[in-house]
Amino acid sequence: MARRVFLHVGAPKTGSTYIQNVLWNNQETLRGAGILMPGWAWAQDQAMTDLREVEWRDPRASYTWERLAAEVRKWDGDAIVTNEALGGATAEQAARGVAAFGSAEVHVIVTGRDLWRTFPSMWQQSVRARNKWTFSEFLTAVEQGRFETFWEMHTPNRMLKKWGDLVPPAQRHLVTVPGPGAPHDTLWQRFAGIAGIPDGLCDLEDPTANPSLGAAEIEVLRRVNGALGDRFPHRTPYQLVVQRHLVNAVLKNSGNEVRFGVGLDRAGWVAEMAEQQIAELRDYPCHIVGDLDELRPVNMKESSSPDDLDDSRILQAAIETIVGMLEHADELTRQPNVDGVRALDLLKIRATGKIRRTLKRVASSRR
Questions:
Q1: Residue 59 belongs to some domain of the structure
Q2: Gene3D superfamilies of this UniProt entry (predicted)?
Q3: Rg of the Cα atoms in the chain
Q4: Is the distance from CB of 81 to CB of 38 less than 8 angstroms?
Q5: Which of 153, 225, 307, 325 is geometrically suited to a Cys-Cys bond with 132, CB 3.0 to 4.6 A?
Q6: CA–CA separation, 32 vs 38, rounded Å?
Q7: CB neighbours of 279 closer than 8 A, spacing ≥ 6?
């Protein structure tokens, strides 16, 4: 039975990708130090979709929460489970998730970021997950109370209530995300200190950073999502095709020069929500690593919105994206052979096979 289990349940866009990349890049090193990362990144994601019983779980997924828990129960050291979407679990699902680790000492870790930076990051993440609403539509829905999912999954208050209440106060941890200008490894040092990861054990270089897209690039993606119709339905097909070949291969490497954020017309509302959040967390018994003041927005200034871009700027970004896609396609054709077959030819073979299977199904249906 594992001695301690550290459950990092979110929130998204709070440096979770950086923390996870460091953990997975150092999986074997951590294991040698007595700290288990059960499964692999995709396995823990599949376990999350199983625990939450989401309708968009990949039907081919085989890794379950019980399978993950069983691996942890066989370990005699510490274990870390991390997936930022766990924060979206219901109270009942969270209770089932914690109970699966038996008598292990379970610690719940939640990361929190100030709302001024969270709003644009969360909207962008939703577009990168196939949503097609505008930035203004998103903000209005949150402001009018029509999108409670934001508060459930992207603020530490509710996640701590759902997950933290299941363990003693000393085993509830809130890590605040430092403001701009802090040393790059500050967030990691805060997380590692909770999990008992020795300083200097892990290589902190992250070769798979998750940069934000600029206003024009994210608007191109939003419009592509709208044009896709029912092609590449959420979630796995979209990740395998659009996320891989458009977002990761092209858009992330574009200029991304025009940054965007919440307009000053909403600054008062954001500040009010932040103060309410901080007050609630001060009254909640948990271990705070960082400073609650870091959840208070600073340097609020007027920002552009993707909604305000004129079509000529969007067209320019779209053309640059097409050029990037062509370069990406050319790079794929130059990849080493796979068992004697070029990558592009392999794609053609697979596509031809799909067409043949479709024709056979049509022919059979007509008999």
A1: yes
A2: P-loop containing nucleotide triphosphate hydrolases
A3: 22
A4: yes
A5: 225
A6: 13
A7: none
